[in-house]
Structure formats: C-alpha cells, structure tokens
Amino acid sequence: MHVRVIAAVVAVSGAMAAAAAPVSSLRPEGRPPLDAQQADSYQITAVSALRPVSRPIVSPQMSPGQVAANQNFQVWINGFRKRASAKGISSATLNRAFKGVTYDPEVIRRDRNQSEFTKTIWQYLDSAVSDKRIKNGKKALRQQRQRLERIEAQYGVDKEVVLAIWGLESSYGTYRGDMDVVRSLATLAFDGRRGRFFESQLIAALKILQSGDVPPRKMTGSWAGAMGHTQFIPTSYLAYAVDFTGDGRRDIWSDNPSDALASTAAYLARFGWVKGQPWGVEVTLAPGFNYGLAKRSVKKNPSDWAVLGVKGVDGRAVPNYGQGSILLPAGGNGAAFMIFKNFSVIERYNAADAYVIGVGHLSDRIKGGKPIQAMWPQGDRSLTTRERKEMQRRLTRQGFNTQGVDGNIGPNTIAAVRAYQVANGLVPDGHASFKLLKRLR
Ligand SMILES: [Ca+2]
Predict the structure, then answer these.
(1) Which of 22, 87, 118, 306 fits as disulfide partner to 317, beta carbons 3.0 to 4.6 Å?
(2) How many C-alpha atoms does 220 have within 13 Å on its Cβ side?
(3) pLDDT tens digits, residue range 356-404?
(4) What distance in angstroms lies between residue 245's CA and the mean position of ligand 1's atoms?
(5) pLDDT exceeds cutoff 80 at 266
(6) In this structure, is the dihedral angle defined by the CA atoms of residues 349, 354, 358 and 360, taken in order, positive or negative?
C-alpha cells in the first residue's frame, strides 16, 4: 500500500495495490516507505518500549512560508468539511478529528524527497530478504506460532506469507509509523499533487474514526497514511480489516498484532489465495528457450513447461502446482521463476514484481528454503524515468515503435525491445536494461 516513483501510481478500487512502478524501496509502489524500514531490526518482545509515540499535531516552529501554508490549509479544511459531511461524516467526528491539526511540512518534504533512482531486483532483495530479516522472521514464527496457526486455520492463508508481509511492511511490528494519519492525509489532500487519492483516503480515515475502532490521535501511520503492523491504507482497512481478538475493535495499531495479521490473511483470502501453492519457484531455462513465452499471458502446466526446457533448479520438472507463467525479473541474464496464481494474489497487496518476489522468497526462507541460485547481472542497473524515455525515443527512431514516450515500460515498449533484440541477434528477453540503452546510443 505505498508509493515511490510516484508518477506511475494509481489507486486501485478498494485494494492496496497500485499500478506497477519501478522499485526504489522496500515498498516499491502504491505506498510510501516508513523511515526506518531499512533498519530491519526486530524486537517483538520489547516492542512496547519502542511503541511509536504519535508526533504532535502542531509543528513546534513554522517558517513564515509554512505559517502561510497553514492558513490556507485551515481554509481548505473548512471546504473539505462540507464534502466530508456530504459523504456521511458527522460534524462531531470532524470536530474531534481536526481539533488542533495543522499543516505538516514534514509530510510534504518526504513526498518531494523521493529518489528518482530505482533499485534493481537484486538490490531490493538484498534488503527485503536480508539474513537479518530471515532470522527475525524465524524468531517471530517461534514467538507467534499459535496466533499465526489460528489465523491460518481460519483464513486458509499460509502463515509464512502473512509473516513475510509483516516483515516487509513494518519489520515485524517494529516500525509501524508515528505520523498522525488525519494530519498527514489532510496535508497531502490539501497539497494536491495527488489530491483526489489522498482526499478519498482521508474520508476513509474519518469513517474509521466514526466507527470507534480507534481514537483520532492514536490513528498513526506512515507519512502517507499506511497504518499499523501491515500498513493498511484507510480504504483497505474499511474493506478488509477484521476483529480477530473479538473485543469489538479492528485494532491494527496496538502492540498485539492479531487483528493486523488476521486482516492481512483476510485480504489475501479475499483475492483467492490457494493454500499450500507456492507463489513461484526458481527454474532454469534450456538453451534455445523461446523467450517470447516468458510473459504473464502465457500459462502452462509445469509438465508442459518441462517439455519446453523449463525445469526446477534441481533439474527435475516442477511439481504440478497448477498453471504457471515464466517471469524473468532481470531479463535473460538473471534468475527465472515459474509463478502461480498466488503470485497475483500477493500482487493485490502491492503490484510491483520485486515486492511480490520479496514476500514470496522471504516466506520460503523463513520455512528454511534455499537462497535464489542464479546469478544476477550485477553490472547492470535500472533506468531512471529520463533514461526510460530516452530508450523509447531511440527505439522508435530506429524503427521499433514504442507507441509513445512516457517513461513507463509497458507491453508496447517490451515488444519494441524484443523486436530490436531479434533484429540484432540478442537474447530476446524484452528487458529494458541499462546495457541495452548503452547499445542504442
Ligand atoms: Ca480486536
């Protein structure tokens, strides 16, 4: 439920997912990162000591520019109150929610301060599935086993996957975010860069307050309003959060992660999780493999893939987990995966391939699975938006039409890359790499 490389972000109906965007953080897209996400420490036993104390809703000192912004912000709130009451938010809720709330320059600073450079899949996995995060995941599994097994029994979602999402979203509850959600979302909605999206999240946040699940100043989260152990955005909370403890509140904020983990399982169950099916498995491709088959729309049974030279890293045909597609996240020179239905279920949480592979692989490693066997193309790097546009311009100019120059690598650009690769005797993996851009230059 987060964003980076914001240009490509689109809110998806009621889901946490957003359109695929390049990876630049642990939360590749859809939702913004928590500040401390890189420091993947884990202290579940001491978590109450680390419990985020909500930042004050008034900034200690504002510059003259910020004072002016706050004056406009207060005017904006007055206008917003009318729109909110038209959507069923009572004036009592609005009064409680906005009491003392000021413009938050820090939220805007973070919104603007997002890196253009995106991580490669292997850089992402180094952090998302670090030894420390695996170790802390195993520890969390030992400590939370009973709770996780009850959730697994109720929702039919494998506990290691729920655990892996918890591990990536908040380092197993350590970093849940201490920003005041009403203040952050109101500031972002007022700011207007993605105003419509954030205003709809703010309305959803007010509905949560109105339901009594949490008091206003306890509703904390990331700077862009992702909340609790598994970082639900407000619209996802309204649609999918559950009260697993039975106390009448869907409490995803407190130290007890039960409701948050059950809500995550409920979310995955809702989108069709198949219990016991892997997200994907690493495979090898025989020499001469037709790279044109490595796309999501081509689905085959593992035995049919085996005939085409796709096998598990143990050299045997992949067991019959159902129909799968071949995914090459770094092109023909990196690891290859056969991915199954559950891949697209995790995608509903966050649509970036890197995120899904990160969750899936972390869950495998927590279960004691092996590291990814293939080498990654370490010398390569991902492209900036400017470079992606440059590649599209150069391809089109050389007769491989990308149907536009928008900096997004979609099906048309991939097809143009493939056509260029075929015409130039390269491995036609359709991968828009820096190496390829250098060649186009
Ligand atoms: Ca509860």
Answers:
(1) 306
(2) 19
(3) 999 999 999 999 999 999 999 988 888 988 999 999 999 999 999 999 9
(4) 4
(5) yes
(6) positive
CB atoms within 10 A of CB 149: 11
Distance 159 CA to ligand 1 centre (A): 19
> Distance between CA 151 and CA 157 in Å, rounded?
8
Query: Whole-angstrom Cα distance, residue 140 to residue 163?
Result: 8
Residue 54 pLDDT more than 90?
Answer: no
Beta bridge partners of 280: 339
How far apart CA 222 and CA 107 sit, in angstroms, is 9
What is the Å distance from ligand 1's center to 264 Cα? 14
State the alpha helices, DSSP H only, in 212-257. 234-240
Q: What whole-number percentage of the chain has pLDDT above 90?
A: 78
Q: How much distance in Å is there from the Cα of 250 to the middle of ligand 1?
A: 5
Distance 199 CA to ligand 1 centre (A): 27
Cα of 249 from ligand 1 centre, angstroms: 4
Q: From the CA of 212, how far away is ligand 1's center (Å)?
A: 12
Q: How many angstroms does the Cα of residue 164 sit away from the middle of ligand 1?
A: 22
Lowest mean pLDDT across 22-26, 114-118, 138-142, 153-157: 22-26
Position 35 scores a pLDDT of 37
Map residue 269 onto helix, strand or coil.
Answer: helix
> Quick check: 42 pLDDT over 80?
no
Contacts of residue 438, Cβ cutoff 8 Å, sequence gap at least 6: none
Tokens of 157: 């979602």
Is 395 in a helix, a strand, or coil?
helix
- How many angstroms separate the alpha carbon of residue 5 from the centre of ligand 1? 35
Per-residue pLDDT tens over the stretch 59-70: 888 889 999 999
Q: How far is the CA of 218 from the centre of ligand 1 (A)?
A: 15
User: Which pLDDT value is given to residue 39?
Assistant: 33
How close is the Cα of 148 to the center of ligand 1, in Å? 15
Cα of 28 vs centre of ligand 1, distance in Å, is 29
H/E element holding 179?
A: strand 179-180
**258 CA → ligand 1 middle, Å:** 8
Q: Does 259 score more than 80 pLDDT? A: yes
How far apart CA 15 and CA 32 sit, in angstroms, is 15
Query: Distances in Å between the alpha carbon of 91 and those of 84, 201, 243, 347?
Result: 9, 18, 27, 37
Query: Cα(257) to centroid of ligand 1, in Å?
Result: 10
Q: Are the C-beta atoms of 148 and 162 separated by less than 8 Å?
A: yes
State the pTM of this model. Answer: 0.86
Per-residue pLDDT, 404: 94
Mean pLDDT, rounded, for 310-314: 96
